[in-house]
């Protein structure tokens, strides 16, 4: 059993789902473990992680619109707005989605299903630099 | 420290919460570790996992109705409907609930609380065959 | 590689977010691992865990109000009310937030971001004693 860890930076340009499957899979594959466990941790309170459909782009835009609808930019609804009207909705959308994913590795590959992609979910309007911590345990 | 992993198939008949506690606990117990960590990963984008009340059945039916209410089948709300009106609500309900659970093992047992059961949450109407990946680390 | 596990009790006085960052970090630090993985598991179906903003208190009160709004105490909406009107909303709020968090340790420290605190989210009105299971793997 051995373990390896790293920090990975992701630049975001706009609100929404940014696919990071290739970057994650490439890093995990490079560690060359046969059986193991990969943990991805998002070090922010206004961005999160999501595993979702990687084929139809309409799924992503529908999901983005859904989260805008259930946690809208509505100044009358929130006390906190230090960083503008997208500040508090960003915290709420982060609370409703994971900041951490742990994915098994079997037969040398992450066990992602055929239609599963890994996404960073940026909840702020302006570009941000986001940091993920990756930790892999395995043999 | 050693690790063991497997794939487990679950057949679903209808939308809703399907208890899988016994199957998971039996598999974990058979690995006979004293301290460890079990990870369950659902390889789908229209089914998820949930730890919830295992006693009153009304909790499950109330939960099922709640998710129908907050992510309804409403063709006017979504662009994506490749597989019918339950397609996009299934993706949304999956985004709002975990696809991965990691549960410690202490004193040879999963640390589930007295009232905690493990459920597969099927979000599609028609029967499906779902695959879970299980990975256990321990000693 | 070694592992250590413990149970931690948290007393809650009221509904809402209770910061437990210091207790978790102190326990993890005391295990003195350089690289590893900490898992926190909440053994209840009416309390959960959340990583959120640790600076502005208004973020927490806005979050608490948000969950009251999307899963309100509304006897007409639920069948299950064995323990009163806050019973079923507590199960729903638990389903919408994590009961388990796994956080990497790199360079001897949990990789929490600058603004990330760890909270126990109590969803019942009356005081409760909650138990968390902590498991740490590392070297």
Structure write-up:
The structure is a homotrimer of 139-residue chains. Chain A is an alpha+beta fold and 139 residues long. Chain A has three helices and eight strands, in the order ββαββααββββ. Chain A has helices spanning 21-30, 57-70, 87-95, and strands spanning 2-12, 16-19, 36-42, 47-53, 100-106, 109-110, 116-122, 128-138. In chain A, a hairpin with a 2-residue loop joins strand 5 (100-106) and strand 6 (109-110). Chain A is elongated, with a radius of gyration of 16 Å. The termini of chain A are close together. Chains in contact: A-B, A-C, B-C. The A-C interface holds A 1-5, 7, 37, 39, 41, 43-45, 70-71, 77-80, 82, 88, 91-92, 94-96, 98-100, 102, 131, 133-135, 137 and C 1, 35-37, 50-53, 56, 58-59, 61-63, 66, 70, 96-98, 101-106, 111-113, 115-116, 137-139.
A few lines on this structure:
3 copies of one chain form a homotrimer. By secondary structure, chain A is of the alpha+beta class.
Topology of helices and strands:
The structure is a homotrimer of 139-residue chains.
Chain A lengths: L1 E11 L3 E4 L1 H10 L5 E7 L4 E7 L3 H14 L16 H9 L4 E7 L2 E2 L5 E7 L5 E11 L1
Antiparallel strand pairs in A: 1-8, 2-7, 3-5, 3-8, 4-7, 5-6
